[in-house]
Structure formats: C-alpha cells, structure tokens
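Hi Y.,

Following your request, here is the sequence exactly as I used it, all 158 residues.
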Amino acid sequence: MAGTEREVTLRFLAEPADVNFGGKVHGGAVMKWIDLAAYACGAAWSGKYCITAYAGGIRFVKPIHVGNIVEVSAKVIYTGRTSMHIGLEVRAGDPKIPERHLTTHCIVIMVAVDDSGLATPVPEWVPETDKDIKLRDSAITLMEMRKKIGDEMQAHVS
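Below is the corresponding structure, written out as tokens. Let me know if you'd prefer a different format.
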C-alpha cells in the first residue's frame, strides 16, 4: 500500500570495479547507489514509478574502501503535490564488524509519474516528531535556496 514505507536502506558491497585512480570508491558509484535508494524510497512511498528531478547538496565526508559494506538509507522528509524530497545518508565500514561511518549525505527529489510519464499526486507526509519537523523545515529552506540559485543560473543559459 502506498504511503506506508517512508524509509528504505539498500546495502552494497564495494567492489574493485567501483574504485577510482586513487584507490577509493569513486563518486559516480556512490551517486548511482544514492539514485537507486531514492527511487526505491519514492516508489515505496508513492506506490508509483518515480523519476529523479533533482539531486543536490551531495557531501562526500569520508572515502569508501573496496570490500566495505555500504548502506544507503533514504527517508521521505517532505512531500509536495507530486514530488518527494528524500534525505539520504551513505554509511560504510568493514562487513565483519557492525560499526558504520558516515561517508556521504544529500537530498534527492523524486517525482511520481503515471503510465504516460505525467506527474501524478503522491500521498502527503506529515511530520509528527520534533526531529521530523526539523527535517521538513530544512527541506523547505533548501527548496527556497534552490529557487534562488536557479534564478541566478538562468544568466548562464544561452
């Protein structure tokens, strides 16, 4: 049932094919995992096929090493009429021990679409805890900041 699963965690094993020239997992692999988790979260929440409308604020905090278990947690933190703002955290560590450290975090906006590819409404998410209210408020603030940045970026579009 749509609107019942707000949070999803995907797990990956960092493989040698994911490594950059510096010997760490490259950002492109991490961004792919983020997009997959955002899709899974958006689809679980909306019950619909979703497309990525925005990925931003990606912050690479620590490197991921080959052989690490990587956990990508995605959580709905704000819903619009057809969009879902999803907060993501990437944590990694040695698979032989339970400890995971934060490596990356960001926000992705997913839009639910119908069979014709047109945006379609999603269930509303209403925060109940203080932490969730702060997450929602942060998503709204970031939305306002993106609008300002978008307006400024228009000067660079020919």
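The CA atoms of residues 33 and 72 lie 7 Å apart.

Thanks again,
Q.
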